[in-house]
Amino acid sequence: MNAQPPRIHSATFDPIPRDATPLVVFDLDGTLVDTAPDLTGALNYCLAEAGLPSLDVDAVRPHAGRGARAILQLGFSAAGITADETCLTNQLPRFLDRYNAHIADASMPFSGAVDALERLRGAGFKLAICTNKMEALARRLLVELQIAGYFSAICGSDTFAGRKPDPVHLLGTVSLAGGSAPVSIMVGDTDTDMEAARRAGLRSVLVDFGYDPCPAAHEKADLVVSRFSEIDASTLLRLIETVSAD
Ligand SMILES: O=C(O)COP(=O)(O)O
Ligand SMILES: [Mg+2]
């Protein structure tokens, strides 16, 4: 059983509805789950089929949040080959089939992530996923990791007409989760996430252990954390109230 939604002391701040349940929207790759190992596995499968050398996971990790095409491009360019659109379009189904079949072989939630989900749910927060992964892949990963049940909505790059940083993606996720933007927070690892939050009018938390915590992402984030233990109910409620009072 979930606890009662925490009280947000918002009486003086328009437009937060008094009875709104706070919502935390998580990015997936590089934020909740370290997906780089299985993305690297799918890449190396394609490279091997093409007779090209494999890449180490550490070489792929900084690019792991940029989608399958970018990861394929990285692998081919490391072998000195410029992969044109036709090459990428040909490789993509192979990559995605392999990834789909091995999506949780070695991918793991980051340290403290599941405890944070448990803690926030216990404190009455709603939780959701807004990822630029395709929705079916995101769902499969979360189910295989046995954490899908935490989320009121799981929205991927193909769920709505736009994807992050298009605010349509984030606002659609908030709406599907039954949340309200003024009491919602985006937690992510890239500038794409921080920019989506800014455009959608959500508070933002940057995890600096993710795949691409660049200076622009730091600049846009309302809060930067280095571990999940820093993400607790009181910190997030304070963030909602503080920014609301601006
Ligand atoms: O797969 C991607 O393109 C990125 O996924 P993310 O939005 O969960 O980081
Ligand atoms: Mg990410």
From TrEMBL:
What is this enzyme's catalytic activity, as reactions?
2-phosphoglycolate + H2O = glycolate + phosphate
What Pfam families does the record tag this protein with?
HAD_2
Q: Please state what class of enzyme this protein is.
A: hydrolase
This entry's Enzyme Commission designation comes to 3.1.3.18
Q: Locate the transmembrane regions by residue number.
A: none
Q: Name one GO cellular component term.
A: cytosol
What is a single molecular function from GO for this protein? phosphoglycolate phosphatase activity
Gene Ontology biological process: DNA repair
Tell me the SUPFAM superfamilies matching this sequence: HAD-like
Q: Which InterPro entries match?
A: HAD-like_hydrolase_sf, HAD-like_sf, HAD-SF_hydro_IA, HAD_2, HAD_sf, PGP-like_dom2
Instruction: Give the source's domain of life in one word.
Output: Bacteria
> Which pathway does this chain act in?
Organic acid metabolism; glycolate biosynthesis; glycolate from 2-phosphoglycolate: step 1/1
- Tell me its family: Belongs to the HAD-like hydrolase superfamily. CbbY/CbbZ/Gph/YieH family.
Protein name, per record? phosphoglycolate phosphatase
* Origin species: Aureimonas jatrophae
Q: What is the lineage of its organism?
A: Bacteria, Pseudomonadati, Pseudomonadota, Alphaproteobacteria, Hyphomicrobiales
